[in-house]
Write a structure and sequence with these properties.
It is a single chain. It contains five helices and 35 strands. It has 494 residues and is mainly beta. It has two domains: 225 residues, no CATH class; 230 residues.
């Protein structure tokens, strides 16, 4: 009985001590966004592990579906990363189902004007005060209509070479309200890029044969045989070339509009007709369209030292450019030597370097971190337990996982991953750091799911391609380099 009472009393004392340590030591820290135990070096400890880095260019295979934001613009010389040229290629088809979209060539008195309208998303990367000349060409390349959902890194499609329209635009005015008057009708539109088009194109369209070009069936494909589509680019002679803007093709405001006059029974009337973005193929219940967003990058300055195969090993600075761009491989040898412990927080932290261009060119919305399984063909794995994928939305909780910038620092929460390493002595993989539009990962399901096979998933990360770049401090001895990239671990001994 005495022994039982002693054990009971001892248990109460131990519980009280644990409760006191866990409850009275909780104070905010400067790590991540959580509340953590205070580091007193009695109950709770802090260790910093060195990170070794290697920087590469991506052999990028990013694809651009028609429904995602398309990049358009020219950055002539980012002082750290070099140049970026983004162009939009798209097929257009008649919106009208009448025998001739212009009624008839004989009834036309004149084509007053024509405008290509692109629905502006409001997103801009670079200097929004830039003044750029947007130029429109007719696509002559027969390969343009052959494939769908193209990669963004590929050669430009051939064009006729002679512009069919152009307009000089101050980028910060694209979202301004614009008034359009047709006869007595007044319409106001905003968030639309309007590029003047040569009205002669309307006369050409109106003269097409109604039987072969504007038939009642397969109308779109018939028109595409005589008009491949248009390419929109920013002219290299633009006054300022330091920005990219973003547009939605799959929007009712994206269209080519002609304003023309016809004579009907002796009365002259003013009309409009639209040619809209083409959706031409349905597979598996999904609609695909003929479009492309081609992004050409020419690495410059120190960024030009990166290659697809040979790493820049353990550099002072890491160059991370959003897709199509670059990535870094991170290794933390110290993870292999950790003894068993209770990990309160493990955070991979990286500081942004103060380099030229930061005032104009922002960092990516999100950086992304996964694992590289070198024993299985370098397959990319999600970070188990810390990264939780939502299969319904093809996204994840970045607020918990990290990847956004806070106080000039990016961080990733990999607490459960590190705890699993010290508990089970599992394989420690290298990390991969990059800024994709979407990531292809073999998703490693959380432990509570049981032994579920890894499944390849497309994970949405950043909404805009080619938006964002950042120079990060590389790894190094944290004692000599206060803002080195490190893995910081807050833990208690067991």
């Amino acid at each position: 009985m005495k022994l039982k009472s002693l054990l009971y009393a001892t248990g109460i004392v131990i519980l009280a001590v644990i409760f006191n340590v866990r409850c009275t030591k909780i104070t905010p820290t400067d790590i991540g966004t959580d509340l953590l135990p205070a580091i007193d070096n009695v109950h709770t400890f802090d260790t910093v592990l060195r990170v070794y880095t290697a920087n590469y260019l991506f052999d990028d295979s990013t694809r651009m579906p028609y429904y995602e934001n398309h990049a358009l613009g020219l950055i002539e010389d980012d002082p750290e990363f070099g140049s970026t040229d983004a162009g939009i290629y798209m097929s257009l088809v008649p919106n009208s189902t009448s025998k001739n979209p212009f009624i008839s060539i004989d009834s036309i008195v004149g084509i007053d004007s024509a405008f290509l309208n692109l629905s502006y998303t409001g997103a801009v990367f670079g200097d929004s005060n830039s003044v750029q000349r947007f130029t429109v060409y007719e696509i002559s390349d027969p390969q343009f209509l052959d494939t769908f959902n193209r990669v963004v890194v590929r050669p430009d499609f051939l064009t006729t070479g002679t512009p069919i329209g152009s307009g000089l635009v101050t980028l910060n005015t694209i979202d301004d309200a614009k008034t359009i008057v047709v006869k007595r009708d007044t319409q106001t539109v905003s968030n639309v890029l309007r590029i003047p088009i040569d009205p002669a194109l309307g006369l050409r369209f109106a003269a097409y044969d109604t039987g072969s070009v504007y038939p009642s069936v397969r109308r779109d494909s018939a028109f595409q045989k005589v008009f491949n589509g248009i390419a929109v680019k920013v002219d290299e002679a633009s006054p300022s070339k330091s920005a990219i803007t973003y547009y939605s093709l799959d929007n009712e405001n994206t269209k080519l509009t002609f304003y023309f006059r016809v004579k009907n029974n002796g009365v002259i009337d003013t009309l409009t007709t639209d040619f809209v973005f083409a959706k031409v193929l349905t597979l598996g219940g999904k609609t695909y369209s003929v479009s492309a967003n081609i992004i050409n990058r020419t690495p410059g300055h120190d960024y030009a030292n990166l290659s697809l195969s040979t790493p820049v090993a353990d550099p002072d600075n890491l160059y991370i450019q959003s897709a199509p761009g670059s990535y870094a491989i991170l290794t933390v040898p110290g993870l292999k030597n950790l003894d068993n412990r209770l990990v309160h927080r493990a955070e991979l932290a990286m500081y942004r370097s103060d380099v030229p261009g930061n005032d104009i060119y922002s960092g990516p919305d999100l950086l992304y971190l996964d694992l590289i399984d070198s024993a299985n063909g370098n397959r990319p794995l999600s970070i188990r337990d810390d990264f939780v994928y939502n299969t319904n939305t093809a996204s994840y909780d970045y607020q918990t996982f990290g990847g956004f910038i806070k106080n000039d620092k990016y961080f990733f929460n990999i607490t459960r991953y590190v705890q699993n390493l010290v508990t089970t002595s599992d394989t420690s993989f290298s990390f991969r750091l990059y800024a994709p539009k979407s990531a292809m990962n073999y998703y490693v399901y959380p432990k509570e799911y049981g032994d579920v096979p890894y499944s390849l998933q497309s994970i949405g990360v950043n909404p805009n391609v080619a938006k964002g770049r950042v120079v990060l401090n590389g790894g190094g001895d944290p004692a000599l380099k206060p803002k080195a990239m490190v893995l910081r671990i807050i833990y208690s001994k067991i």
